[in-house]
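Now for a typical sample entry:
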Amino acid sequence: MLLDPHQLHQNLDRLEDIERASLRLVVQALYDYRQLAQEVFHTESDLVADVGEDITREALDRLGMPRIDQRLFGKIVTTSKPATCFILITH
């Protein structure tokens, strides 16, 4: 099924379904890649956001997803609590 992305603003339920499915895919990819990702975080000296983007790309590549040839618009946010979240920016 092909969707016109310019028409999605008229069907917000469909847009939300796509966002949820996309997030589930990213979460599954990161979950499968988590052990290697932990090693990468410990050995890399780049900014956390840059390492996070690299890990996300690598995790999606290992799932067999098509290559994304542009920057992922998102931020890795860390807090004082032992939790990290990935925020997708929609603009």
